[in-house]
Amino acid sequence: MGRDSFYLENFARSLALIRARAKGIHHALDFIRFAEGAIVAEKALHDSYFQEFGLKNRGHIEPTTHHYINFLESTSALDQVEVAMAAVLPCFWIYKEVGDYIYKNQLTEENPYQK
Q: Measured on CA atoms in the order 105, 107, 108, 111, is the torsion positive or negative?
């Protein structure tokens, strides 16, 4: 949860950078608005887990997480907007794949992933 929290915070920064640079690209702004909604929902879920499990802090950032978020932020700030959008897209793809799998194989009783 700690690593994901670091990732989510910096992923949101990447999205903000893309949004700031995508002025005039209507479909890019729609993409970012959708992404922002996902970030808000995910952060609320994180906050509830931290509270539920009594976590006081996120720990420290691991090198793999650091390097990945550094890649996302630098790509979002320096590369073409379309390249930046492509860099953040895998997050949404994996969430969709995992979400679809969980939905199709869900257990209704004692499911630790119900939330």
A: negative
What size, in residues, is the chain? Answer: 115
Q: What is the pTM of this model?
A: 0.77
| pLDDT tens over the chain, length 115 residues | 778 888 888 888 898 888 888 877 777 777 777 777 877 888 888 888 888 888 888 888 999 999 999 999 999 999 998 899 899 989 889 988 988 998 888 877 777 767 6
Q: Give the separation between CA 58 and CA 69, rounded to whole angstroms.
A: 16
CATH class of segment(s) 2-104: mainly alpha
Copy the structure tokens of residue 113.
């992933």
